[in-house]
Fold:
Amino acid sequence: MTVRIGVIGTGAIGQEHIQRLSKKLVGSQVVAINDINETAAKTAVNRIGIDAQFYANAHDLIKASDVDAIVVTSWGPTHEEFVLASIAAGKPVFCEKPLAVTAAGCKKIVDAEIKHGKRLVQVGFMRPFDSTYRQLKSALDNDEIGQPLLLNCKHFNPEVGDSYTTDMAIVDTLIHELDVLRWLLDDDYTSARVIYPRKTSKASSHLMDPQIVILETKKGIVINTEIFVNCQYGYDIQCEVVGETGIASLPEPTQVPFRKGGNLQRAILVDWKKRFIDAYDVELQAFINNIVTGNFTEGASAWDGYAAAVAADACVKAQQTGNVEAIVMPATPSFYKK
Amino acid sequence: MTVRIGVIGTGAIGQEHIQRLSKKLVGSQVVAINDINETAAKTAVNRIGIDAQFYANAHDLIKASDVDAIVVTSWGPTHEEFVLASIAAGKPVFCEKPLAVTAAGCKKIVDAEIKHGKRLVQVGFMRPFDSTYRQLKSALDNDEIGQPLLLNCKHFNPEVGDSYTTDMAIVDTLIHELDVLRWLLDDDYTSARVIYPRKTSKASSHLMDPQIVILETKKGIVINTEIFVNCQYGYDIQCEVVGETGIASLPEPTQVPFRKGGNLQRAILVDWKKRFIDAYDVELQAFINNIVTGNFTEGASAWDGYAAAVAADACVKAQQTGNVEAIVMPATPSFYKK
Amino acid sequence: MTVRIGVIGTGAIGQEHIQRLSKKLVGSQVVAINDINETAAKTAVNRIGIDAQFYANAHDLIKASDVDAIVVTSWGPTHEEFVLASIAAGKPVFCEKPLAVTAAGCKKIVDAEIKHGKRLVQVGFMRPFDSTYRQLKSALDNDEIGQPLLLNCKHFNPEVGDSYTTDMAIVDTLIHELDVLRWLLDDDYTSARVIYPRKTSKASSHLMDPQIVILETKKGIVINTEIFVNCQYGYDIQCEVVGETGIASLPEPTQVPFRKGGNLQRAILVDWKKRFIDAYDVELQAFINNIVTGNFTEGASAWDGYAAAVAADACVKAQQTGNVEAIVMPATPSFYKK
Amino acid sequence: MTVRIGVIGTGAIGQEHIQRLSKKLVGSQVVAINDINETAAKTAVNRIGIDAQFYANAHDLIKASDVDAIVVTSWGPTHEEFVLASIAAGKPVFCEKPLAVTAAGCKKIVDAEIKHGKRLVQVGFMRPFDSTYRQLKSALDNDEIGQPLLLNCKHFNPEVGDSYTTDMAIVDTLIHELDVLRWLLDDDYTSARVIYPRKTSKASSHLMDPQIVILETKKGIVINTEIFVNCQYGYDIQCEVVGETGIASLPEPTQVPFRKGGNLQRAILVDWKKRFIDAYDVELQAFINNIVTGNFTEGASAWDGYAAAVAADACVKAQQTGNVEAIVMPATPSFYKK
Structure:
């Protein structure tokens, strides 16, 4: 069985996903595309070397009889509309983050999916598909360090442009930790607070950088996350879990160890695109497998997308108030239990 | 285009390759199988869930009109015959190591392929497809440490059974280094000598273990390789290259770093199957891609298989004589130049 | 010149210092001892093999004409009295931590010393004499990572007895970080808050463990320190400094790297006594050198002891209130500027 | 008791030892000096700030009634004469390496010392006093990896001057491994061979660099040692011991780990003087303690100096012949058993 896919939005990430779904993964074929720029879209699929029907209107693509499933990689504010339309059409849909730009929008999707009665939505959070995070989760699940008590995470970028604003540290950057840590710990957040350390001289005048976000969870775990988007030295994702009997850490990406120039050294990635590139393959393959088996057991659900949005809202509020802000999430509906 | 593949030999490695070619890789389908045990063969493909024609005779499979390419995973001594038959049939063939059990047999295949006029043969040496060896080769090719001068390698297994004999340290174990180091250094061996250190008390009485094999190359590089197949602690593959300006080493497989029980530690693999499991996927995908593009640019050629056999013969002789034994390889024919 | 020393308090640490001052360091001699247990004191010096006069009254020892300098290693609550008496006698005094059990007591010593007009007091904070902390400080002072912005520290013990109470995490444990981080950063604290993560099941019912103490400094640096005194796995002191252009960390104590039993591993200390044992030698030698040169340039001053006490008071308050508690330290008097 | 020492030879290493013996170590005092350059010698001791009698003739210094022990740091070819004279005077003598420039010279000293009937000679091999080698030896002695089977060692220098010749790789460089590995393994060498890998372009035309020396021992251990004196990247001393159940390695010198400039890195020493500087202190303190206790239990004996010379002779011969050269050492006399 080959899953016939329609892709909405053929920008950079859209094109990468088309490439994956056409050339690298098993069981999928891109048969339809939509974009606001028809010429660019057609050029892109030609370059990739596939034959896909162009739709000027995304809703026509969603409804097309030869399209089995939808991939939404358009501009963020359009996600909600297209995901809801896909659910209405009863078709599986993979939506790049964010699922919706507001928690309310995410909730609307959750409600629609529950009403539909069967899971259809996978959200594009790729970190749980990354092999190093999976190794770390296995360590926790195998009780290698006892119950987790506290975490120390880093999300460091070498630098950002002037358009990057203080709240983007949450909604664009921390959002990945907000997703992956729920999955890692099988837990939900209860509060967030933000502390601003001494500001780096490398950041724009309008940007607080670095920032520390401290989250607490239902199990009482405290998560200390540092966001530092002008750290200069590299793209560095760290996650250390302190448990009752030991510490487990996210493995570093594999690099050649050198002895040269007076140093024992190995490279830290600078380009973020390389860090999780393999995870995107696994993530999209999981989407196809979910469709083929008829069972959405892998990947972030609409509920996960909603949970990330609720947590992000509280973190942004905490950025502004300086207070401990509550994160109020209802219990996971049985519909979404794994 | 889907490459239709016939697999000769459906033992453990054969079944793994059938699984890969059917379920994991892009562009291939297993349509035919042969084995000396018909029942076991049929059971295996049923379990994998594919529909493949059973051939009682391997030569019928090779000639079958719906078989585009052959994968040989039968008993070693049969390889030569089936590879030669595949060449005679003008069909691409992937042959697990060894290409033939003698250097003369390998040479016969080389001659047949050259006579055929187009490359058809890929030998199942998987290490050049391993991502850590590729990172190391990139480092050398990017001149990170200048010209390589000497290497230190380890091929350690936790333990072997009583049937493992001293010469198997060369033909079963070192054979992988003999292949991958030629590729890594883009060089050929000129001599080998073997030194037996103090013997471990963990080895059978008939087995010399560990052994040190010292190879020299045309470029003058000296390679010190330790084979230790009862090292107890793990399956450990190491490769360190000392260059004119620095040292580069094979990265360790990714593992979670722990602090626990009075140690800062991370696991060393014990099961060899896990070490290069991803490399098998890349290797077989390269075989399919070679067929699709009509150009055997990737993977070990028949010439590489021949070179490994010639070097192994010299190493075995060196085991017996204690002398420096010459390794005489003609220059690579242009037919095999990459 | 040999400095003749009188030691007040000949318990465990007192005996170790007597041993050092008599047998290991250059330029000192223990000539007088005092303890509440005369027999034990005399036995101790006999065992060490020195000839020292026993004084039943510490004040007599302080005033003795053949005693050039005092070392106070008696019970904490007595420190203030003996240090003040030493200053009154115009004699250099090395006092184990705490300088006094209250900040007010420390302040009294500061005032007395300033009034005396010349520095006489060194407080027994040994970490700034530890070679790994010194390497880290050199890295910062050499501008290897730009201005420090935030720190992550750990003070982990394998386990503590039932008598260890929640406030001891500050006054007995964190007190070392409170001293060494001021020195490392050349900065003063402005606030403290305490967060209690999920409690380990390994701690006594009355003990909050682990604890997170977050300090802020005049320069705006945020310090995240984890205290975990039942971490099970070892005695682990960590200090990571995130600067504007990189991260520098406290080196791990030197240990043999092993490959054994399926792990790549090296030991983490379990016994805290071994971690800073060399630092004690350097610290006491500095005391002797300070006396010989007549210039107290090295080691913690009475002011440093006072600063640690003020910070500890705020941390204990923060443990109780859950609030951000201000740490109010006057500017360092020029008398104590280094 | 203070040991009064006379130092013969006040060049660089002589001055360093005078400094140590006068200012840093316990129980010694330099009271006499001799050098071929009187002015320089006097200037040196003035700078160090001690009052020592200058002797124009070394033999007068050796015989001086207020000199308890001799330290020989003069030009290598003079060592034998001064050590023999010290033995004749019945005085303890510390002699920098080499003990004598020929094995025969070393043997003469051994014979004289045995005839004297009591150990007096300590040779200046400092590596057994280095804390990292001691940690490695402890690991072996504690049976952490079972019986040692083979070793891989490196002695790398960043660069050498034009006056450095191929044989100096043995007599100046490898000599330290020849000493420390006998001590580490409690074993004696039986043979040596030398292999010359591809030569680095960074070496003088007359120098073979790098070189591999392969030693075998009475226990059958094979030692692979690489000497590379123009390795460019640092002063790097490595020692890896493969045992029956695991591998133990010499710890790296402690350095701050950094994340900076796209690398995870820590420094490798470039200046060899820093690598074993602490070991010199321990070594000389052991000499003083040996004298005080009247029992030469620590440090390299004249026999050890002789053994290193015999092994070095065989290695130099192996450099020239390309053959496996026997190293013939008589059993250690009971006089020298530890």
User: Anything to note?
Assistant: Chain D has a mean pLDDT of 97.
